[in-house]
Amino acid sequence: AKAHKIAVLAGDGIGPEVMAEARKVLARVSEKFGPQFEFKEELVGGAAIDAKGKALPADTLATCEASDAILFGSVGGPKWEKLPPNEQPERGALLPLRKHFGLFANLRPSICYPSLTHASPVKEELIAGGFDVLCVRELTGGLYFGQPKFRGEKDGEETAIDTMIYKKSEIVRIAHVAFKAAQGRRKHVTSIDKANVLENGLLWRATVEEVAKDYPDVKLSHLYVDNAAMQLIKQPRNFDTVLCENLFGDILSDEMAMIAGSLGMLASASLGKAKEGGLYFGLFEPSGGTAPDIAGKGIANPIAQILSAALLLRFSLGLEKEAAAIETAVRHVIDRGLRTGDIYSGADDTRKVGTAEMGDAIVAEL
Amino acid sequence: AKAHKIAVLAGDGIGPEVMAEARKVLARVSEKFGPQFEFKEELVGGAAIDAKGKALPADTLATCEASDAILFGSVGGPKWEKLPPNEQPERGALLPLRKHFGLFANLRPSICYPSLTHASPVKEELIAGGFDVLCVRELTGGLYFGQPKFRGEKDGEETAIDTMIYKKSEIVRIAHVAFKAAQGRRKHVTSIDKANVLENGLLWRATVEEVAKDYPDVKLSHLYVDNAAMQLIKQPRNFDTVLCENLFGDILSDEMAMIAGSLGMLASASLGKAKEGGLYFGLFEPSGGTAPDIAGKGIANPIAQILSAALLLRFSLGLEKEAAAIETAVRHVIDRGLRTGDIYSGADDTRKVGTAEMGDAIVAEL
Ligand SMILES: CC(C)[C@H](C(=O)O)[C@@H](O)C(=O)O
Ligand SMILES: CC(C)[C@H](C(=O)O)[C@@H](O)C(=O)O
Q1: Of A5, A16, A6, which is closest to residue A286 (Cα–Cα)?
Q2: What range(s) does the Isopropylmalate dehydrogenase-like domain occupy (chains A, B) (predicted)?
């Protein structure tokens, strides 16, 4: 069988450390299950700015184009915060990658494991037993890319304009992603909008209602974004699949991640159009950031990166069995009490470990 | 002395019940401190739609114009949700009132009383001792009113457009409100934006930095809105004054209110330009909604409405002593253990009371 080509963009901060663990896990997957991977490492973000003057160098983009998927670490850090915004690691690398590859569907599972509810800022009684919410965020439309996007003189005064714009077809395609995902879950989509104020909200709601007709087995609810920001805290267990436009998804998926309590364990997938065979080109990355404060110390939680690799196997390579095996291994290691510092509570029968030890344990479990 | 004219717009759901208690408290303020109030009740929201076919009838608007301030209850409910969006209670009454009177500054204190931390969804250890965050939200700009605002055919497809637009002067005036408020508080403004994506974010951040120079005694921090949605949950005690544009303020102030744990106790003020003497025309309303599920049962918490009346006295009538007296009375009644259902935990030395009994206790305390 041909080797699967994976572009590896570790980036900044804890990116390289946690990526190393994901690579170990993928090597073990090859050994155990057979699929071959061809990895190509490229610079991105601050590391690329330092070496080549650009957050997303042409080489990096070319490698991504020649690959089946991108395994991404994280980018950014204090060192590059004074650059002009368009050149900064996040804006200079992430947004162009999303746009270039048409990665319109961002899937962010927020999972709170039953044994890790202590790490959540939310009261135990509200999250007992943990929860599992999937945020489906539209990623290439809305205020992020809409034109006009402008800052300058207007009517004699400095003025800024950003445009929230959605075509119906953009809403249709992301809604299908959410409903399909919900069918494999608890069959409940909560669609978020601000239909009481925005024209986009009205079009969003009407379109999602239409798409819902194709999925009679899935229940659809609507929530205003401000109300959603409240209810997610109070009753995260009442949510299954949350469907959002780009900016609302940015805010609410981060809020959900915080409620889950362990950013270091949350993976994400950004997918383009399905190709033949139902696979997607995609970019897979942890939900957390570069965590510059703990970078280089060998204490970061590698699980988000490892689970991102699992999502890559599932969505871009069609290796469902292998993806599920990684996810199961992670659960077992957590059940056995291994904890990196971010999820360690000092409880009996748990043990604090570093980045590499956590990675090794997951490899061994596989 | 001339009587102060107050337009009373109780609205729907629990609005009339809690308004009755605020009226009792204001009557007691007259009795005790002397100022005279001339109240004029008008219909608004669903009640006005039912009686006059419009959420904001001309009579109501005329009364508001002839008044020194508006004491508002809340509007909306399932009965009117099928109306065209522009005619619904919220959009048909609240937004036009804000725009008509130029109420650009929305102040929403999120206070978690030390004795009510149990009512918050956030773990006790993160909020021990309670907290007090003031959200200053710009209320007449951004995506709410920006043009073009459009839904229809574009390039052969149904499309929605909303425009996020801020002029520098709009940002300057709300920033001054936030810095002035912070001076009377813990001298720390956290300004929220999405400067890594939006041109509005860049203008917002640069402008707030400029205004900050006039307030060397106030510390200024910046947070991206997605990060703010996380940090507010984890460390609400680290925030003092949070400054937001319109939509971000809508989302984050509701999130903060939920974190405080007792929506039924949170007041808000929406203020226009300062008049001579430093007073503001304003609209004062509880942060919570109409709560149709408990309306008419006499169990709603009237404190948000009563504290909204206190804000009215402070900002629109300049009656600081009277405002503070109401706030102190509320604190004492809470300290004495009186609780409406929404904040009752069953703890010893607390007692569950209804709407009227809570109002009466506050009156007695005054
Ligand atoms: C870094 C930033 C541009 C990005 C976004 O806003 O989409 C990030 O917050 C995310 O959610 O991936
Ligand atoms: C009802 C709605 C239009 C309003 C808003 O979005 O401003 C409400 O959510 C608020 O915060 O006052």
Answers
A1: A16
A2: 5-362
